[in-house]
């Protein structure tokens, strides 16, 4: 029986809660540390829950001392690109400074395995599609810069303190658990697929497309969507690789396929059977035209392969949102 303990920071959030479920199903002992600023009590799946903030290093130290985790997974970043442009201080404090607080407490207490949720935003506007890990890192918004800065911090902490890490640069997490027990929740909601489905449900009057004059096949932004359960599986495999002595690494996680905003809307109309109102408005600052991943390195190194299609993503998300 696997009795390793994993501290999941941000485990009451969307991706964090699916990761917790995955870890519990694989017989790990899971401790959730979350301040519930963007997480939700209904997404807490472990009996071991500590309400705490990463700026509260005393609480963090007490938690690590009590549960003595074998590894830490971080899902506690703020993730809105648009908000990061308007409120960079908020993003640098939480996404960078607070991660350094966490790493310092880990190092002090001898916790040497770290899984970090990075982002495709580290690449900015890529020169090559699909994007490999060797692509130039030139983020175009504060959110992406915070992720890249943490990756650089991790390299320095490995060299100085022996901290082992895996940084997973994923693209657009989407979908929900098949049973409909947990799914995507944000307040306010900023992600495309849940906004589209909320419009289908009548919770919103209209869905806006931010710009239709990009250099793409239909003028709308193209993104790579990956099911949240596929992400959780990749994080699990990355964790097990670290426990087996694997070296620190940064990897892309995506589907390798790109879908435009218009295609997501059309696909959602087909799956839901509902024709809802759509309009076009101005571009958002900081949106690259195309982001599609080359995840072949993750497949090779982690032995990971995605299981869910775009239809699965939208169908499971639709089941979740209908149940709310």
The figure for the number of domains is 2
Per CATH, which architecture of the largest domain? Answer: 3-Layer(aba) Sandwich
- The fraction of residues in strands falls at 15-25%
Number of helices: 10
Radius of gyration: 19 Å
Shape: globular
Query: Roughly what percent helix?
Result: 25-40%
Summarize the structure.
The chain is 40% helix and 18% strand.
Produce the secondary structure layout:
Blueprint lengths: L4 E5 L4 H12 L3 E6 L13 E4 L5 H11 L3 E4 L6 H6 L1 H21 L4 E7 L22 H20 L2 E7 L1 E3 L17 H9 L6 E4 L11 E2 L1 E3 H16 L5 E5 L5 E2 H12 L5 E4 L8 E2 L4 H7 L7 H14 L1
Parallel strand pairs: 1-2, 1-4, 2-3, 4-5, 5-6, 6-11, 7-10, 8-13, 9-14
Antiparallel strand pairs: 9-12
Notable features of this structure?
single chain; 10 helices; 3-stranded mixed beta sheet; UDP-galactose 4-epimerase, domain 1; 324 residues; 2 domains; Rossmann fold; alpha/beta; 7-stranded parallel beta sheet
Structural features, described:
The protein is of the alpha/beta class. The protein contains ten helices and 14 strands. The strands form four sheets. The protein has a seven-stranded parallel β-sheet with strand order 3-2-1-4-5-6-11, sandwiched between helices. The protein has a three-stranded mixed β-sheet with strand order 12-9-14. The chain is globular, with a radius of gyration of 19 Å.
